[in-house]
């Protein structure tokens, strides 16, 4: 393959808003000419802010954005060779398709060299001729497959057709880079699928760089040459769709891209790892040694269902869903759930065994900077369930300025809209220094066994594992031994929560 040139380069780009929150943190990325690159991440992770900095609607707080090697940080938006297609397209409802696309061109002035009566050459700003505009508009409409519809009133078009007009309006300016901010999110499922294919075709026809932003992993996997996975302003992983799907670098990426089984594990030998109550054979990988605490990722399609006693772990089929080509089963192995797929029809309640090819057991280093509980749930008393234990927490952090009313609903301070967070799926985070251990077993919200104790310079780092196989990593100045039973307590204000879906999913009124 030939070395493509870099068209956009983001170097140590940071964005801190007035409220002091860092929304984009040391973002580094080189985008190649003609590439289809996608930033993928949950709502609020800083995708739009990154795009707006490239477009010039927002300035980086620090760092540089280079276009073809030149710093464009101070160029105003209209002077940048980029165009943006927004999430919510704003077409002119009173204009037809042609005029919507031609609108910008009719206002545009380009420098032309003219000779005045005295024979002096001068540069004059001139409008484009009607013929040039006509050619450009028709070419753009051909790319988006709307060349038969130029006279149609935009208000009579379907959502997908309107979005194509919006794309035509962006590409008619012949940008070097097209920025697309969740352009398909307002479309229904079927239309979105069709448009994914069409966008990919447009990308090939145009040959320009597409810089795409989405929270939809399937969209990213389908269309992109490369994906940048982002979490709270920080790039987690950059790679091809195959690369990111097959070799997620950490539990966040694995969880975000496709469905995964993720477990806490402990290495018992260089090629053995213990999780969900059994010891499994796994690949020998550099950097993983006996006693290491790891995250295990297994894709559901890699779990084999076998007859009871003939696999690595025995379990019971707890649920099944017919998915067309295969069934999706949840197998309960002790207290753990294993998601798997199988084309055969088994009854719920059947005793089975599961097996996984060692090559399909992915080991990942646990990030020991914070305890992250990705499967936490809010209960009916606005507590957060971690593992199987409820912890008092402050749910008002999930909506800025909100309060709780006497019925336990979260209330928006401005709109007065109410939200019912019961059963809301959240990610809960607790700092390593925010967990207190005690020998008084009744004093905390849960208890567990110390499975690892490591002295780190001036303090101990413990891993406490509960009966539900939930781990708490704790920094402490006090001494315990492995296998000690301790209670775990966390103060209400030290639990940081993040909703997995948007808050609007929980609106009551
Ligand atoms: N102008 C602003 N002032 C303060 N905070 C902002 C501003 N714009 C966005 N944010 C915050 O920055 C974070 C990232 O926002 P955004 O880039 O829109 O995320 P995404 O597009 O990934 O959903 C959010 O927490 C958002 O509330
Ligand atoms: Mg956004």
Say what the CATH topology of the largest domain is. Answer: Rossmann fold
Number of strands: 35
Identify the overall geometry. elongated
Q: Within the largest sheet, what's the order of strands? A: 6-9-10-3-11-12
The CATH homologous superfamily of the largest domain corresponds to P-loop containing nucleotide triphosphate hydrolases
Radius of gyration: 27 Å
In terms of quaternary structure, the protein is single chain
Approximate strand percentage? 35-45%
- How many helical elements? 8
Whole-number mean pLDDT:
91
By CATH, the architecture of the largest domain is named 3-Layer(aba) Sandwich
Tell me the major beta sheet: 6 strands, mixed
- Ligand types: adenosine-5'-diphosphate, magnesium ion
Q: What distance lies between the first and last C-alpha atoms, to the nearest angstrom?
A: 56 Å
Walk me through what this model shows.
This protein has 509 residues and is an alpha+beta fold. The chain folds into three domains: 6-81 and 175-246, P-loop containing nucleotide triphosphate hydrolases (Rossmann fold); 259-365, OB fold (Dihydrolipoamide Acetyltransferase, E2P), CATH 2.40.50.140; 370-506, Nucleic acid-binding proteins (OB fold (Dihydrolipoamide Acetyltransferase, E2P)), CATH 2.40.50.140. It is 17% helix and 41% strand. It contains eight helices and 35 strands. It has a six-stranded mixed β-sheet, with helices on both faces. Strands 15-14-13-16-22 form a five-stranded antiparallel β-sheet. Helix 2 (97-107) packs across helix 3, helix 2 (97-107) packs parallel to helix 4 (159-171) and helix 3 crosses helix 4 (159-171). 32% of the residues are buried. It binds adenosine-5'-diphosphate and magnesium ion. Magnesium ion (MG) is lined by residues 47-48.
């Amino acid at each position: 393959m030939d070395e493509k040139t870099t068209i956009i380069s983001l170097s140590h780009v940071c964005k801190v808003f007035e409220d002091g929150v860092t929304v984009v943190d040391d973002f580094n990325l080189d985008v190649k000419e003609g590439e289809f690159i996608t930033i993928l991440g949950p709502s609020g992770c800083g995708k739009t802010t990154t795009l707006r900095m490239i477009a010039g609607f927002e300035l980086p707080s620090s760092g540089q954005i280079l276009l073809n090697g030149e710093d464009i940080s101070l160029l105003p938006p209209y002077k940048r060779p980029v165009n943006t297609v927004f999430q919510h397209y704003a077409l002119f409802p009173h204009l037809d398709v042609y005029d919507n696309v031609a609108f910008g061109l009719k206002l545009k002035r380009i420098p032309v060299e003219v000779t005045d009566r005295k024979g002096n050459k001068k540069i004059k700003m001139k409008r484009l001729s009607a013929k040039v505009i006509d050619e450009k508009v028709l070419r753009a409409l051909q790319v988006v497959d709307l060349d038969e519809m130029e006279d149609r009133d935009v208000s009579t078009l379907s959502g997908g057709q309107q979005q194509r007009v919006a794309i035509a309006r962006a590409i008619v300016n012949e940008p070097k880079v097209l920025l697309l901010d969740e352009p398909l999110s307002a479309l229904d499922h079927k239309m979105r699928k069709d448009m994914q294919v069409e966008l990919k075709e447009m990308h090939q026809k145009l040959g320009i760089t597409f810089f795409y932003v989405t929270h939809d992993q399937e969209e990213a996997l389908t269309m992109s040459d490369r994906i940048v996975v982002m979490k709270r302003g920080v790039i987690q992983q950059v790679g091809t769709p195959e690369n990111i799907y097959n070799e997620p670098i950490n539990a966040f990426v694995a969880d975000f891209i496709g469905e995964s089984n993720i477990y806490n594990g402990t290495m018992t030998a260089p090629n053995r790892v213990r999780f969900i109550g059994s010891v499994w054979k796994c690949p020998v990988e550099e950097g993983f040694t006996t006693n290491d605490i790891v995250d295990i990722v297994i894709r559901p399609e890699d779990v084999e269902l076998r007859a009871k006693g003939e696999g690595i772990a025995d379990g019971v089929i707890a649920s099944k869903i017919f998915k067309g080509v295969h069934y999706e089963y949840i197998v309960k192995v002790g207290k753990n759930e294993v998601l798997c797929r199988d084309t055969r029809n088994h009854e719920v309640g059947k005793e089975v065994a599961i097996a996984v090819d060692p090559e399909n057991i992915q080991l990942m280093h646990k990030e020991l900077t914070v305890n992250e509980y990705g499967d936490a749930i809010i209960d009916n008393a606005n507590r957060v369930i971690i593992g199987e234990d409820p912890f008092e927490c402050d749910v008002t952090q999930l909506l800025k300025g909100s309060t709780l009313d006497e019925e336990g609903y979260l209330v928006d301070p401005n709109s007065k809209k109410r939200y019912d967070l019961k059963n809301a799926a959240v990610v809960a985070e607790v700092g390593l220094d925010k967990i207190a251990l005690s020998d008084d077993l009744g004093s905390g919200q849960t208890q567990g066994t110390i499975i690892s104790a490591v002295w780190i310079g001036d303090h101990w780092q413990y891993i406490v594992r509960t009966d539900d196989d939930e781990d708490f990593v704790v920094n402490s100045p006090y001494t315990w031994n492995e296998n000690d039973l301790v209670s775990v307590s966390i103060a209400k204000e030290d639990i940081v929560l993040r909703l997995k879906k948007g808050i609007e999913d929980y609106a009551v009124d």
